[in-house]
Amino acid sequence: MITVRLAKVSDAQRINELNENEFGYKYPLDKTKERLEYILTKESDRIFVVTVDDYVAGYVHACNYEGTYFDANTKP
Prior knowledge:
The protein is of the alpha+beta class. The chain is 30% helix and 29% strand. It has a three-stranded antiparallel beta sheet with strand order 1-2-3, with helices on one face. Helix 1 packs across helix 2 (29-39).
């Protein structure tokens, strides 16, 4: 079964593996866990993981950002 859910700190190892193996970003696991813990506390960020039979197969990090084509705090 494929599901999408909010990331948890316990997903840090698999996210670290994806970052290294799929994207080429070598970063220590303990630092990935620290960063994930911090990001999960932010109102402006969300990390979603895609699981296949409870195995984290991918993730996406969504966050608010300022653009050059709309005013702050408004929809484009």
